From TrEMBL:
It catalyses: gamma-L-glutamyl-L-cysteine + glycine + ATP = glutathione + ADP + phosphate + H(+). One of its GO terms (molecular function) is glutathione binding. The lineage of its organism: Eukaryota, Metazoa, Ecdysozoa, Arthropoda, Hexapoda. It comes from Tribolium castaneum. This is Glutathione synthetase. Residues 258-359 form the Glutathione synthase substrate-binding domain. The keyword Nucleotide-binding applies.
């Protein structure tokens, strides 16, 4: 346990006078609704109605130096994850025990094995990832370059299309485009340094709404008479950055008539975040059409063309952007798994490809924290040291000496750790005294190899107002903790990286007493970092 609970300074003096608070909360709710910081209700779902997404009224303080560190290290993490995803031996060795007992990860790995044995057809495009895919025939790419926007008359797009296709013409089947989000909390136990919570390689959300929340908090500070403070709200272009990656992947694919497909859940609650990506793509590159399909749609109606083009409802798919497929409940039957395999076999560029998906598992994250692991992928010792500094303690629960030591540590001091499975989407981790109970229960079972043990991060508290749908007109001050996400885009193949950028951020904040803080999972609220020295 942390010896002392630290508090970050308030950004503005709180509490606000009640009349001022009521007025600013009313304005903030309407601003959120009118600017798409909204979601569909899970309790009263309607496709025709939105409610504002939970938000923190005043931006939360975040150490400026640690924010800058998170931005800087994203380029290294992009490189690291790109190389990990392309290392078959490392993925196989890391997951060999997990896939025996975790059915979901095992199913993903079998698809990976199948695609590998058949020979890679596609580039990978993932969230982290964009695996860029497809063997793009030279003649096909050149034809696409000529046709790209003849009708639209946009000359620079035609050139960009030609150049994008040319970069990977030597080995297009190996090219990858990665979109990832690395999440951090400030750790009071390590002199207020950031520690990585996880790295996301599929369906990394809230670039869309998060970009608007930055603008929202600029408005709020101005309304409260603090225009001089706007300089401490960092610029955020996450939405444009991720959409640029998707457009680049579309150009690399080489067919100007092909579409970008968002693979979505059966019911989409986080609709605004997804649609912002779709609408931004159209704004940035008007000739690109985006379609939305579910795994079941793909199972029922998708097929492969003679060159392994992915075809659905009369469309050829250039890029697949996965906003579903990251948890078992998305696969209702074997046919949805067959659809995932069909997509992996196709020419389409996937975000993520199966190898990027596996690279983002908790077990791979834990394996990377082992002595000597990072050095396999990063030759620069300075880069290695920077990554090591952000790692929290990560421990395997395999049946070996180190695994037994980790089991005993969890039993002796459960509140020091978090128990994590190979799942995304929030609400899956085990905390506190329940860690001891869970570890004791699985101690002699192979099930334990599907989990990892992570040292618990103890972030400093901030104080503020959290505004939620259905909440009081006069919200109460609460203690909160925040988690920073940094988005990255990387393009390259197994031999080289040609594009590597950090593109933006998001901040999620939860009540300090809550264990998890996923906004889509209903446990957290959207926020912005206010940088302090």
């Amino acid at each position: 346990m942390a010896e002392e609970i630290k508090h970050l300074p308030m950004v503005v003096p709180l509490p606000l006078p009640e009349a001022q608070l009521v007025e600013i909360v009313e304005k903030s709710k309407d601003w959120a609704l009118m600017h798409g910081a909204a979601m569909r209700s899970k309790t009263n779902f309607s496709e025709d109605a939105l409610q504002f997404a939970p938000f923190v009224l005043i931006p939360s303080a975040f150490p400026r130096k640690e924010f800058a560190k998170a931005l800087e290290i994203q380029l290294i993490l992009n490189e690291l994850m790109h190389k990990v995803a392309h290392d078959r031996r490392f993925l196989t060795e890391s997951l060999k025990e997990t896939i025996k007992v975790d059915e979901f990860t095992g199913n993903l790995f079998r698809i990976y094995e199948t695609v590998h044995s058949e020979g890679l057809t596609q580039f990978g495009y993932g969230s982290v990832r964009f695996d860029v895919g497809g063997i793009v025939q030279k003649a096909h790419a050149d034809l696409g370059a000529l046709l790209l926007l003849e009708a639209g008359g946009v000359q620079h797009d035609r050139v960009g299309f030609r150049l994008a296709g040319a970069v990977f013409r030597g080995h297009p089947e190996r090219a990858s485009l990665g979109l990832l989000r690395s999440d951090y909390m400030v750790n009071s136990a390590s002199t207020d340094k950031i520690k990585q919570v996880e790295i996301n390689t599929i369906a990394s959300s809230f670039a869309g709404i998060g970009t608007n929340i930055t603008v929202f908090h600029r408005y709020i500070l101005q309304e409260l008479g603090h225009s001089e403070m706007l300089k401490n709200l960092p610029e955020n272009n996450a939405l444009e950055g991720l959409c640029s990656g998707m457009i680049e992947a579309w150009k690399i694919y080489g067919n100007p008539k092909a579409v970008i497909m968002f693979l979505i859940e059966d019911i989409t609650y986080n609709i605004c975040d997804q649609r912002f990506h779709e609408f931004k793509i159209r704004e940035m590159c008007p000739q690109v059409r985006v379609i939305r399909r579910t795994l079941t749609d793909m199972a029922d109606r998708a097929s492969l063309g003679p060159k392994k083009q992915l075809l659905i409802d009369g469309c050829e798919v250039a890029v697949i952007y996965f906003r579903a497929g990251y948890e078992p409940g998305h696969y209702h039957s074997q046919k949805e798994w067959d659809a995932r395999l069909l997509m992996e076999r196709s020419l389409a560029i996937k975000s993520p490809s199966i190898h990027y998906h596996l690279a983002g598992t908790k077990k791979v994250q834990q394996t990377l924290a082992k002595p000597g692991a990072l050095e396999q992928f990063l030759s620069d010792p300075v880069k290695v040291e920077k990554v090591k500094q952000i790692f929290a303690g990560l421990y395997s629960l395999d049946f070996d000496e180190l695994g037994e030591q980790a089991i005993q540590m969890a039993i002796d001091d459960p509140e020091r750790f978090v128990l994590k499975p190979q799942r995304e989407g929030g609400g899956n981790n085990v905390y506190g005294l329940e860690v001891r109970d869970a570890v004791k229960k699985m101690k002699d079972s192979e099930e334990r190899t599907a989990w990892i043990l992570m040292e618990r991060i103890h972030p400093p508290l901030s104080t503020g107002y959290m505004v939620r749908p259905g909440g009081s007109k006069v919200p109460q001050l609460v203690d909160m903790v925040s988690e920073l996400g940094i988005f990255g885009v990387v393009i390259g193949d197994a031999e080289k990286i040609t594009y590597n950028k950090q593109v933006g951020h998001m901040l999620r904040t939860k009540v300090a007493t809550a264990n998890e803080g996923g906004v889509a999972a209903g446990l957290g609220a959207l926020d912005s970092p206010y940088l302090i020295d």
